[in-house]
Design a protein that fits this description.
Length: 326
Amino acid sequence: MSTLIPPDVYMTDRNYMVDNYPMIIGFTVAGTIDALGAGIDDLMQGDRVTAFTYLDFSNRAMQEYSVQPRSVVSKIPDSLSLEEAATLPDNFVCAFYVLFNQLGLPVPSSFPVSDSPPLADTPILIYGASSTVGVYAVQLLQLAGYKKIIATASTRNHEYLKSLGATATFDYNSASLNDDIAKFVGGDGKVPLALDCISAESTLGILGKIIGSQGKVAVLLPIKEGSTVTGSGEQEMYWELPEGKNPFEKTTQIIYIRTFQYQNDEYLKKNLMPKILPSLLQSGFIKPSRVRLLDEGSFKERVEAGLELLRNNKVSGEKVIVKITA
């Protein structure tokens, strides 16, 4: 099993991170171990695993066999299906990296925490919380002891997000969104910490009115023109906000997120996929996102159908999973 995500569309349609075609797409995979390299003593042949397959383009996910280093592989419990497991690696890693590295929240020694963290009562906003990154960010914040987790999403996903730990949910299509969040936050009505899971010009424009002047906002790259995750082929993508398009106050800290850099943190490299994620899955504390499984037709047809869903922004509150083998 493997996933299709917006960067796969950017790569197939826009030459995003691509030097030459043809190429293999897919950033995550779930399956069973066929063989192990030297020195791997905590996994066995036949173990069920999931992996974040981003380090080597020749060994990406959408193929029958993929060779991965131990640092990007997680063993999964028997209670988890392979299609559920395939939803996890890229977006779980992204959410963890944003919260406990880029935004600077302390890394819990265990989940759930026994003692409240220093900023437990600080409002933290997850914009586009029904995205897969948002789903894991909400769960991780709840497990880490944060008590004011604000989630924006379409109304059909509000109860789902509350079941995962969101304290308050707001409709990001509401004309009163800013006022509603300000009323919940109290005080000056501004949010000090935020993660934008959509990272489009329109969403950043909204956040510019919500984030405090001394606040931090994490932006998942690339930034898109318009208002959607994938945008259209005519719309530009940016690696930082262009001159004249920055809606934030000068003192607001904008953190541009490149998830692929998470292994620059030695602690995360050694622990996040090999130890932390398996422990959270085994305990049942992390729930996989909802699955849109594509398992009909040929492999090529399944991939094309998934890319088309993403191109047309037809995915909400779930993740597209492609069955690789017949």
